[in-house]
Amino acid sequence: MTKPADELAVSEFAPSTLEQVIALRPFTVRRVARWADCDPAGVVYSGNFTEYLLSAAHLFRRYLFGADWEQIRNNLGVDTPAKAVSMVFEGSLWPDNVFDVRLYVGAIRTRTADLIARAVHADTGLNVSDGRVSFICVTSRDSRVAAEIPDTLRPCSTTIAQIARRPRLFWKGFGDAWMGKVTHDRS
Q1: Lowest mean pLDDT: which of 14-18, 19-23, 64-68, 161-165?
Q2: Among 48, 70, 96, 146, which is least packed, fewest CB within 10 Å?
Q3: HSE (side-chain half, CA atoms, 13 Å) at 126
Q4: H helices within the chain, ranges in order?
Q5: Residues 111 and 136 sit within 8 Å (Cβ to Cβ)
Q6: Torsion of CA 67, 18, 38, 181, to 10 degrees
Q7: Domain carrying residue 28
Q8: What is the pTM of this model?
């Protein structure tokens, strides 16, 4: 039996549509798929997954570095734009599906670093997508000039990488096809 509309709690018929950080380890952003995110068939358009990934990555960067984009540019003289995004779709999202995007620190190199993401249905834990965002460090004066990742940013990323239980993705090569299952790495 359904409840009359005046007895329903707001959360029962209008789940939050804003993204919200619900956990720090692993760093998890919860979202709700909106009708506006869907294609004519009523399923979330695959292009929107990139926006979900980049938006969650932005929040994760703020958490990792304790600063926003402008503060990093001004205080450290570097910027960290996305260099590449790779995604593999493993499930669908429909309007009002609640899903979590979990982020982990991936490889940290001299001038580039990766964030690894996994999106899952919040209620079932079924995988929706796996992805990676690679950032490159450039000078804030000239975005065409690569710079080394400042030492002041490295400890933040390394500490989180050591603490978080992150999935290890087996990629054939950058941007190539998915090569296998996800395992978990506690290191």
Answers
A1: 161-165
A2: 70
A3: 9
A4: 10-13, 47-65, 69-76, 154-163
A5: yes
A6: 60
A7: 13-165
A8: 0.78
